[in-house]
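I have been asked to look over a protein record a colleague put together. What it holds is a sequence and that sequence's fold in token form. Please read both lines and tell me whether the tokens look consistent with the sequence. I do not need a full report, just your reasoning and any doubts. This is what I was given:
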Amino acid sequence: MRVISGKCKGRPLKAVPGQTTRPTTDKVKESIFNIIGPYFNGGQGLDLYAGSGGLGIEALSRGIDKLIFVDQNPKAIEIIQLNLKACRFEDQAEVYRNDARRALKAVAKREIKFDVIFLDPPYAKQRLEEEITFIIENELLMNEGMIVTEHDASLTLQHSIATVSCDRQEIYGDTGITIYKFK
């Protein structure tokens, strides 16, 4: 696992040990960023099920100014912090150990709006449509922002959720990617 492009191109990233997280493969990560970017001109991001932090760190490497990482696994938090330090992104990141629902409520209270939100929950515990609805109802997404979901390829998400709709959907083996933007 490595940073694909940008300031930290080629930098290896540590993975969370054990079977509790499923890191996004380099192939899928590269495809996601080719679709959504490939680079950013500043902005803020949220990596809600951060795992090792690979998606968020890739966004930082490609030009996002600030990124909030959230995961409820203490080992994942430790690995995210190590990966941020290795890439020298500590000053551009906030890392929180929390579950997704509470994290979204906390972010909503801060009235932050994001340019990109990554949702890559454990496949068996996904509540993507509920979380996307919360994001939209609480105005957490910039007008030109996007929500990038990673899910089991067999999962079919609604084309429209609240006021966002599917902009693009791709399948890579057993991994599905669905990107939502405002209609």
